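Handout, page 2. Input:
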Amino acid sequence: MFMSNNFFQVTPEITELSNLCENNSRIDPDLYDKYAVKRGLRDLSGKGVLAGLTEISEVVASEIVDGKEQPCDGKLYYRGINVDDIVEGLTRENRFGFEEVAYLLIFGQLPDAGELERFNRLLANYRSLPTGFVRDIIMKAPSQDMMNTLARSVLTMYAYDEYADGTSLPNALRQSLQLLALFPLLSVYGYQAFCHYHHNKSLYIHVPQPDLSTAENILYILRPDSSYTPLEAKILDVALILHAEHGGGNNSTFTTHVVTSSGTDTYSAIAAAIGSLKGPKHGGANIKVVQMFEDMKANIDDWTDEAKVADYLEKLLEKQVFDHAGLIYGMGHAIYSFSDPRAVLMKKYVESLADEKNCHEEFELYSLVERLGPEIISKKRKMYKGVSVNIDFYSGFFYSMLDLPMQLYSPLFAIARIAGWAAHRMEEMINANKIIRPAYKAVSPAGVMFLLKNAEWFNSYIYAILLCKNSERQVLETWQSLKLLQRF
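Output:
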């Protein structure tokens, strides 16, 4: 039975209540400075508030020169190994590496040939959904948002797991590795079900192949004819590696730590991380980049004209074009100043794919915006640190050249990042054993100031004073009790 469309509409009553909520929930922005609150858990330079320790990965954006901290070209390390070296080594040896990187992140060391073979075999064995799961879960009420579909599928896996609530390390590891293996299937099958039921497209469900890498299997099960070129698969593998982990301080990984610290199950922790990654300020940013460039290409007749491109970028910042948000999407990062090492690596491979796909003009436009963007932003905005393109700037372009549907951009991020989430869940379980509970300072008006804002309650407050001649807190408690009694 389907609910009426009216059930999901914002009625005038809800709008009125929403206004009431907004009017009584605003906090004076000056109070954040007064109490030294780091909004977004970051200071003005982008440096995060220290909330934990990790050995899984490290993001480097500054260095000490003559005893002073200075910005530098960004670096990213997985378990102490520079990601540049990982990707260059895999390229030199012409092999896939996402599974090896997942092993490194979760277990803290690179596998030898035998260990990697056993790990790949384990993932292949796990890459099979419970009987009827596709029919009964994925194909029922398919969502238009694949991240919602992915989260729902993860939560539903709980019902199929006889040991779902087991929080021993071996059980949590088993669940995490199964989700690592299943994320491509849950994402792609969810998309195919959506296309079938909402766009009347043919439904096909390809079974993953045990001898293929994660990157190859994604293309194999997604495309109707299961075909792909070696370059396509190799660059997708690099994209998965670059998205697999990022220092632990990102929103979705921090969510994994927070939810894990409560002692809950793996499915709940990972579903919460998916909900975080879905946000356009996190995993959905590359979609905005692609949409921005589509609008740019439609409104600039000569993509090589620097003046015209610069004019468009200025209008972006002035909220005159595209979505009127005042942002150049794909520019800037909370930590990096001079460069995002993932973007630097991604650009090299994107250029190769652009040549193969005859998209060199688009690539040159991206490169031009990469060069002009920071200059224009620095002129228009107050800068606390340097600005450069981030990985989202090129990843969306790369996915579009692969003809990957935009609905799968964020799930592809999740397919990679589940490796980092799993590693951080293990680390939290092994080391912390303490629920994460940050402090919030109450700044609501109290006592007489509150009553002045709510004059209709003043009479009951006076009566409370007559009954209780002690401290203001006792007066308020008595008054609150009287108000509760008046409701009945």
